[in-house]
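Aim 2 progress update. The chain analyzed this quarter is reproduced below.
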Amino acid sequence: MVSTGALRAHLLAVRLAGTVATSREASLRSYRLFAARDPRVTIGLDPEGDWKQPDLIALMADKCGVSADSRHTSGPDVIDPDRTLVALDAFAERLAEAARNRSPVLLGTGHPHRLLGFYAALADALSAAGCTVLTPAHGSCVDITTRFGLRTYNLDYVRGVALVREPGVRGAGHETGAHTHSPLPVRSALAAAAEAGGPLPELVVGDHGWVCGAGQLGFEAIGLGDTDDPALFVGEAEGRVSVVVPLDDAVRSDYYRPLTRYVLNRACLSQ
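Predicted C-alpha cells:
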C-alpha cells in the first residue's frame, strides 16, 4: 500500500510531477498547434470551442498547474502534484465502478516503452474482478502518418493492452512497440468490435489518441496526460473525456509502479 503522502513525495522525487522534463517551449508549441487545429496535436478530438493559445494556457494552468503567465516561455514545465493526486483518485474511482459493474474495458497506449506495465497491471486487476478486457482487431494493419511519411503498423495486444508495432517486428513485450499519438488504432479497434457484434467497451483507458479518439466517438475514456497534451484536457473540459491525470508520461517505466499500487488500492482491486 502506498500512502498519499508517500506517493506525493515519489511524484516529486522522480519528476512525474513538480518540475518535469517536458519543456515550456514544447508545451507552448503544442498549444499553438492545437489552436490551429493541427491533427498531430488534436489527436482525434474535434474541439467544440474556439480554443486559442491564451485559453489553453489558462486551461492547462488550472488542470496541471503550469504557469499561467504567457510571458513565461522557456525552461522546464511544472505539474502540481496535488492536482495529480486528486485526478488519480478520480481515475481509481472510475476503475472501481467498472469493476463493480463488470464492464467490458479496452486499454491501449502510445507509450509502450514507458506505460505498458502500468496499464497491464490495471488490465490484470480488472480481469480478475470480472471485467472483459477486449482485444478487437488484433493483428490488423493501421496506416499512420508520421514525420517520415505514411507508415503501416500492426495492432497488437500485450497482457490485454493494445499497442502498435512495425510489420515484421516480433516480440512479446513493450520493447518492440512503437510510440504514437494517433487516434487511428483505437478507431480501428472500436470499428472491429462493432463489426464483430460483440461487446463494446464501457470504458477506454489509455493515453493520447486512445483517450481522445475514443472520447470523440462517444465512449467513456480516462487516461494520463502531460503538459504538452492539451487535447486530453480540452476533451475533459468539454465533457468527452472523464478523467485525465496530469503527469510526465515519459519517465522510466519502473517509476510508475507506486502509481499502480496506489490506484489499485484506491479502486479496491487486487494486485
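The chain has a mean pLDDT of 95. The chain has one domain: 4-266. These observations will guide the mutagenesis experiments scheduled for the next reporting period.
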